[in-house]
Structure formats: structure tokens, C-alpha cells
Amino acid sequence: MEALAYLIPISLFLGGVGLVAFFWTMKSRQYDDPEGDRHRILRDDYDDKPKR
Amino acid sequence: MAYADPIHPAACPACIAVPDTGDVARHEQAPIERPRIALSLPGIHCAGCISGVERALFGVPGVADARVNLTLKRASVDAAPGVSADRLIDVLAGAGYEAHELDATALSATETDRGGRDLAMRLAVAFFANMNVMLLSVSVWAGAADATRDMFHWLSGAIAIPAVIFAGVPFYRSAWSALRAGRLNMDVPISLALVLALALSLWETRASGHHAYFDAALSLVFFLLLGRYLDHKTRASARSAAEELTALEVPKAWRVEDGEEVEVYAAELAPGDTVRVRPGGRVPVDGRIVEGSSEIDRSLMTGESLPVYAGPGHAVSAGEVNLTGPLSLTVTAAGRETALHRIADLVAVAEAGRANYNSLADRAARAYAPVVHFLALAAFGAWMWISGGDLRLSLNIAVATLIITCPCALGLAVPAVTAAASGRLFRQGLLIKDGTALERLAEVDTVVFDKTGTLTMGAPVPEDFGDLPETERAVAFRLAQASAHPLSRALAIAAAEGGIAPAPVEDIREVPGYGVEGRLGDVPVRLGRAAWVGATAATSTATYLRLGNGVPHAIRFVDGPRPGATEAVAALRAAGKRIALVSGDNCAAVDAFASRIGIEETLSEALPEDKAAYVQRLAENGHKVLMVGDGLNDTAALAAAHVSLSPSSALDAARVASDIVLLGQSLAPLAEALRTAVKARGRIKENFTISTIYNIVAVPIALLGFATPFAAALAMSTSSITVSLNALRVR
């Protein structure tokens, strides 16, 4: 039973990380163009960093 | 936003200049950015296209940023003020990509789908909290007792209370506004159940009781939010497609300033200005012709398929198309003052009447909400009496009743079906603009069609050209090639298909508003209007050809039917619908066309009011009318009908007035759409039946006090899942 004392916080923390990650993807508009992003990741133009 | 209220006058002069920027302009005094140019790219489909388009756009001097959105098939360009959309379109055409300018102001709602993001956020929170609380609850159901159970309840509460408060905001808001207006809607029992469940569970937990409903409250919020989100997505995607159609027509005009023509937005024009309208262009304002003569196509306004002559002194109105010669107009009315806009205003008034339509969901909610409240209250009262004043027990049972009867499946019943059916229809080329349009479409028993531009393509085809002698045909071909008039173009296409070589006609000259003349050897030849050529006018659409002093020949034209029109009419007839044709065109043309396509009931030479009156008369006789039309003269009838449909080639005002827009050219999907609508309504009713059955089984259990949080969770999830799966069968 003592295991619960750290297992529950850990599971809540991990779930929370997922939730925050979802918020971040939403805030940075990553769902605006799923079709385009799917293709962009494979294109062979050279770029130093992904364009906004 | 694109088809927001045309009635309310704009509050500031700038709002008139920039048609309707919706929320962005009103609520958010955003830092003034320079407007990005929006382009529609219907042809792009692959990674190569993205690179190609962006590289081409970056190659234009003055372009600071260009971003392609492949999902929406659009590009958004940040460019210096000097760079025009036309320049970018030319560059893209050079690189092999078809592009069209989009009116960025009409796209506001698509760009900032804030409502959708907000719902998704709440949905994510509800999901996260629900999963964690469910895990804790499973251990309680599995037999955790005493201190462990209490700890799990406290933990569940700590997660559930903030989550329910945050995720349930859309329901509290809607319930509050309903209560303030003295009404009951679906959200009132939902909000009440949520608040009571949380309060009671907290009390139970403090008293280290056995049952806490934290998990039930969270599942309730999660499933209901899922329904809301589906509903929102369906409507948002329809709105985005409708906006794109509107945005494709950027209203521009050529204003004469100090003898020079300057391109301006039509909204900037004022009475007294002089504008030029080129052949082939749509008249942007109401005005009087000061210079030039031409023929005017008013078919979108009146349904008349015959072009009419227009010369100095004639009045023209916005929406008409100038065919042959350049015209100069003095503006008499612009923007909201034009006849076109005044009719659009009338439509908005007529539409307000339709808002009274009671959807199935409304009717269900109206019957349901009072019953739920009454049952819960009755259970509370009865148990207080039976147990001799045991408040805790009575409250427990009342809350269990509220939660179990809560319209979880009811909240999913309609949106899940509508989302599936709209998706199916969209793939067939039909855009459902209005939420209740599907239900209304399912009730239709009479279909009223407009002729010109709806059942026909609005493009003429020569009827008896092959009967002319060979020389005449060759001359007509050569003369027709010289003009951009639709009849000439149709003639030239037919002649080219017939394998005719053009005659060597010299000195060809187009006389705007009259026709084309030239010289074949020594013989003067003319192709054009009856009076100009020296012929007597026929009753149907025709052009006339005369060689020297010979007998004038009439070349008659018929309006070709829209692809799929015959099939659609036949299928509707087979489905037992009454079909009628109403048109502003003359009797002969309408009857000839009706008999060809297989419609018996006709009304010809109908004014816009006649059409609307015709539809209203049918409605008064108890018919549910589907009106299909494309012109300004149809808008009043479109708005008066039970449900209305227009092709995407229709005038903007007509598309705004209709519930459904046909995206492709063919009318064939129409009959299929009616079938899908009937099927969808059937599924919605089935869903209501399913959730009612769950309630009939569950309510007695709850009322008798046997409902546990476990039973509530089970009933809620199974009913929601059954309803969603049933909805998917519409696909």
C-alpha cells in the first residue's frame, strides 16, 4: 500500500505532462494544416529550421 | 461571419468600406498588421506543390513571407503594399499552378477558429481527469474499503472538482442564459446534475460514505463535450467552405479618375462616380449609362435568358453582366444601397421566419427537461417521507436519478448523425450550411426548380446551325470568332466541332450592342441583332445572319440542360415528389424546356414576388417545399421555402439565402441527398429511442435506490457508445 504514495503522484504527473503537451501543440497551431505538415516532413528542400 | 446580418447598418464608415470583418474588428483592437493576401489554390495536392508554390511566391520581389496550407488548399502571403494579388496569380500561373484571389475579410471565421480550440481544450481536460478518476474508481468498485476508499474519494474530488468547473463552462453559460430568458433547455438539467453531483459527493466523502459520483460527473461532461465538439466541427467546416465561395468573388471595379481608370474595391464607390464596365464583367453598382452601348445579360436578376440592349441613358443594376461593348456608368447607388443589396435585406427578413423551425433535438429537450427535474424532485420527496427525514439518503437517490437520466446519449444523438451525414454529402458535392437543413430536407415532398442557370447551364447552344447552307455557315463562323458575346462564342464552338473552315471575311468590325459586320469579297455581311441585320425577331433566343441583300437567316439557340438535371428530375419523380418549374423566362422557352426534361407543372414570366408567392401558396397547402434556384430573382423564394439549395455558380445573395450549396456542376447528387437526409432523420429518431430505452430501464433502478456510481458509469458509457455507433451507419 505504501507504493500508492508515490505511484499516484507519478501517474498524475505523467498524465499532466501529456495534457500540457496537448495544450502546447494546440497553442502553436499544429492542427491547422495536418495535410500539409504530413507532406512537408518528407520534402527535400534544405532548411536550417522549420518555417513558421 | 461572411453571411452575417445584412440588416444592421455599419457603425462606422470604415466598416462599410471593409464589408464585414466580424469578430476580429469588433472585439479585438489588434495591432494593425498589413493585410495578408489570401490565394485559393484548387490544384495543389502534394509535397512538390508546396515547395513549388512557396518558391514561386518567394521569387516575387516584395514578398516577405508565403505559407501554403495544403488542408485548405490556400496560400497566405505577406507582401509589400505594391505587390498585387494579380501579379502573384500570374507568377503562379507561369509556374503551372492555378490560383484565385480570396477576399481575406470574408475568411475571418475560418482563420481564427477560436471556438473550436476552446472546446478541444475543455475536452482534453475532461478526458485527462476522467481517465484518472476512473482508475481510482475502479479500485473503489473492486472493493477498496475504509481509509483507502476515503483517500481515493478525496483524490478523485481534488481532480474532478476543478476539472468539472473548467470543462463544463459551455453548459453553465447556456443554462444560465436559458434560465434568464425563463426557458428550460437541455443544459439546465445537465448543469444541475453536475453541481449537485459534486456537492453531494463532497459531503459523502467527508462523512466517509460508500458512494461518490465524481467519476459520473466527469464522464457526463466528457461525453456531452464530445457531442458539442462534433457539432461545432461539422458547422465550422461547412462555414469555411461557404466562406471560401464568397471570398472567391472579390468585388472590384474600374473607377474613372481624371480620365484614367483605377482599380478600386467596389465598396469604395460612391454615387456620382464614373465607372467602366468591360465586356464580360459584372456590373458592380446601380447606375445610368453615359457612354457606350452593349448588350446586358440580366438572367441572374430576372431569369430572362435573352440578352437586352443597353445604350446611353439606360439604367443598369448591380449583378447584371455586360456582354459586348465597354460601358461607362454614372453611379446612382453603391454598396448597401443597390437594388441587389435591398433584395438581400428582404431575404434576411424572410429568413428570420424560418428560425422558428423546431428541430428534433429542441423538441426532445422540451419534453425531456421537465420530466427529469420532476422525477428527481419526486424521488427526493418520496424518500424523505419513506425514510422519515433522512436527508442524506434522499439526496443520494435524487442525484442518482438526475445523473442516470441526464441526456448524455441525447446530447450525442443529433451531432453524431449530422456529422456523419454531412461528411457523406460533402463527398458527393453538397455543402450543408445550416444545422437543421438535413432534418428539413428529409421532410420535403415538393421540389420547385428555377430554369435559367439552375436546371440549365445558362449557356446557349445553337439549335439549327447545321441547316444553314455551307457558305453561310462558314461566314457565320468567321464573324462569330471575332466577338466575345456568349452567342458568338457558342456558335464558334459549334462550328469548330462541326469541322467547318471559316470563310475569308475581311474588314471585320464589332459594333457593340448590335453585332459583327465584315466584307466577303464585295458583299457586306452582318451577324447580330434582328433589327440591325434587317430581320424580324423570333420569339426565342436567336442571332441573325445576312449576306448582302439576301434573305436573313435566324440561328436559334437553346439553353443546354445542366449535367445530371434529367436524371435528378427522373429520380425525384420516382421517389414520389411533386416537381414544378418556375422561371422569369417567356412562356415558349419554359414550356419547351419543361417538356424536354419531363416536368409538367410550370409557371413562366414570373417576377421574384410571383416565385415567392408560389412557394408560399404551396406551403400554405401543407407542402414542404425544396426550392432550387440560383438568381437574385429566386432569393425571396429560396428564403420562403422549407429548405433551399443553390448551385455554386449562383449569385452570392442566392447562396446566402439557401441552406445547401451544390459544389459541383451536376445536379445528380440531389436525389441522393434527399435519400441521405431521410436516412439521417431515421437514425436520429432511432438514437432517441435507444437513449429512451436506457432511461426506462435505469430510472426505476435509480428511483428505488439501487443505483450505484458503478451502475451510472456503465449506463452512461454504453448508451453513448451505442448511439455513436448507430450514427456511423449513415456513412
Mind sketching the topology for me?
The complex is a heterodimer of chains A (52) and B (731).
Chain A: H1 3-27, H2 34-40
Chain B: H1 13-17, H2 23-27, E1 37-40, H3 47-58, E2 63-69, E3 74-79, H4 85-94, E4 100-102, H5 108-111, H6 114-141, H7 146-167, H8 169-180, H9 187-206, H10 214-247, E5 252-257, E6 260-265, E7 274-277, E8 286-291, E9 294-297, H11 299-302, E10 308-310, E11 315-316, E12 321-322, E13 327-333, H12 339-354, H13 360-386, H14 391-405, H15 408-427, E14 430-432, H16 437-442, E15 446-450, H17 451-455, E16 456-462, H18 470-481, H19 486-497, E17 506-511, E18 515-520, E19 523-528, H20 530-533, E20 542-547, E21 553-561, H21 565-574, E22 578-582, H22 587-597, E23 601-603, H23 608-620, E24 625-628, H24 635-640, E25 643-647, H25 652-657, E26 660-662, H26 669-703, H27 709-728
Parallel strand pairs in B: 15-22, 15-24, 22-23, 24-25, 25-26
Antiparallel strand pairs in B: 1-3, 1-4, 2-3, 5-6, 5-7, 7-13, 8-11, 8-13, 9-10, 9-12, 14-26, 16-21, 17-18, 18-19, 19-20, 20-21
What does this 3D model show about the protein?
- The complex is a heterodimer of chains A (about 50) and B (about 725).
- Chain A has about 50 residues and is mostly helical.
- Chain A is built from 2 helices and no strands.
- Chain A has helices at about 5-25, 35-40.
- Chain A is elongated, with a radius of gyration of 18 Å.
- Chain B is built from 27 helices and 26 strands.
- Chain B is an alpha+beta fold.
- The interface of A and B includes residues 16, 40, 42, 45 and 52 of A.
